UniProtKB/TrEMBL annotation:
Function statement: Catalyzes the synthesis of 5,6-dihydrouridine (D), a modified base found in the D-loop of most tRNAs, via the reduction of the C5-C6 double bond in target uridines.
Domain DUS-like FMN-binding stretches: 29-316
Protein name: tRNA-dihydrouridine synthase
Keywords: Flavoprotein, FMN, NADP, Oxidoreductase, RNA-binding, tRNA processing, tRNA-binding
Origin: domain of life: Bacteria
Family per similarity comment: Belongs to the dus family.
Amino acid sequence: MTEAGAHTKSSQAKGGFYASRLAQPGAVLAPMAGYSDAPLRQLAAEQGALWTVSEMISARGLVLGGDTENLTLGRPFEGESNRVVQLFGAEPEILARAVQKAEAWFSPAAIDLNMGCPVPKIRGKGGACLLQTPDVAFELITAMKAATTLDVSAKIRLGWDTDRSVEVAQGLAAAGVNLITVHGRTSQQRYTGEADWDAIARVAAAVDVPVVGSGDIKSAQTARERLRLGVASVMIGRGAVGNPWLFRALASGLDTYPSAQERARTALRHAELQTRFYDDQTGRLTLRPLRKVLPQYLPDHPELRDDLVQVVTVEDVRRVLAPLLPGVTTTHEHARYAGTRP
Ligand SMILES: Cc1cc2nc3c(=O)[nH]c(=O)nc-3n(C[C@H](O)[C@H](O)[C@H](O)COP(=O)(O)O)c2cc1C
């Protein structure tokens, strides 16, 4: 066994974060820029996600920029655990310092390296372009591992334009990575076509570190089929937006899709968490990003969509969802009742 291989085995034997979480059933919330913020992570964690991953954070920004520990991309919600912080970058020294800063500021359970972001502005700075220069990625992992005792993982796509995932994964494993997540598309494919789970299974068979598969899981049934392909777990992104109960199904085997009332209650809670986390009492700024999320809790209530995509305040959300939430009063109704003696 190589030295790096021995290192990986010994940190697994010690029960590193990933090994201990993978000892139970469940699925993982994917990192999604613009979505996997503290409120979404909290809802997924409550439903039994094995771990959640932050939106990607620029290593350069953390180390050289004006970012502070209040950076909302990395900041945990109160009491948050099992949250992995994802970094992107391409310089070993910067990544090593970013790992230390992230560890000090954000108390992550583990650190993940982004090797899959296809967005052009990220090219040359890390993300999926590391798939064209895997040797750089291996150096990054070595530097990150040397900077922390936490588990370090990498999230890759199959390749830049062709599948070279087995070769890349083997190099990452040799560099000491504790876990690899594979999104079964090339960077060139972006989000088109279908994720190639045969390719993900080939990676899982080729390395001796746990491999988590990612791509197109929208139901517990699909997740269970994918789990039979030899992966250690599955990661769910878009399918979990508006449906955190997928995590409950995979953690507990309880497959019931909640009633519209429970889903409406959770949508309202999402809006409340959003306002609380971003500490904006008016919700004027912070509810805007939820406009694309809230209708996904209620796909069977298309009549609410037009109003849900225009909400500004939590009060608006409460008003729009009122038909599904008997017993929840709006501030306006409170005001009316307040003047009436029983
Ligand atoms: C809006 C959006 C943002 C994403 N941001 C990230 C990111 O910051 N880091 C990352 O590694 N992957 C990111 N991804 C990829 C997802 O983590 C996941 O691998 C991909 O969406 C496939 O899984 P899904 O079909 O379950 O969504 C993003 C995907 C979407 C749709």
